[in-house]
Predict the 3D structure of the following.
Amino acid sequence: MKQKSDRTQFEIEEKTLSILLDTLCFMSKNYHVASVIDHAAWIISKEDVDHTISQLEPYVGAKKEIISITMNLKDWDRYTRMVDYAGYCASEQKNRAILEKLYDSYSDSEIFIHVELHRHELNIVTNVFLQMIEQRDEIDFGMMDLEPFEKFEALIDKMKPYQNSEDSVSIIPMTRDEWSTYTPYVKHANDLVLDDYEGDIMADLSMKYKRVNTNYGGNK
């Protein structure tokens, strides 16, 4: 897998691609069937499934044993999440094993948690984070368990494109490392001077993710 700026290139066997695409089509067709998709446990939309299908369909019939696919980072995050779900949804056990192995092969960018932010929350978090970048001299790193600013800036860059989404709620996938960067900065955001509204939102999110933090395994 290769990553350049805002795009990721990866390879997949033609047979595996066919199994994945068939499974995603099965998920789309049976989206409202509880025995296929557990909506109570998974954050998944039919639009996500259908979008990933549309990303993969052009490669069907390529007549190559190994197919190279390029996606932007947002589509790649969504794709890996769909691969994870597909490993549970495949109608045949042997196909589940193949898709689970495919997901495991993406371990370097394995998604640890999906952070759900309403549009107004996302805008405030991103703006406050940018303010923290500008006022970094006011943060006492010796007293706080904050990750280096390089990781923080990379996380902000990842979050920015979601602000352009028209969705009322954004689902932002994060690796374990990104999550470990995100939560302390949310917690310590109120150490900067914020207006009351921003401060209340950040305080609410800090408590929200503290609760999520107690049960990582429940986040799909």
Notes: The longest helix spans residues 73-89. The first strand starts at residue 2 and ends at 4. The radius of gyration is 19 Å.
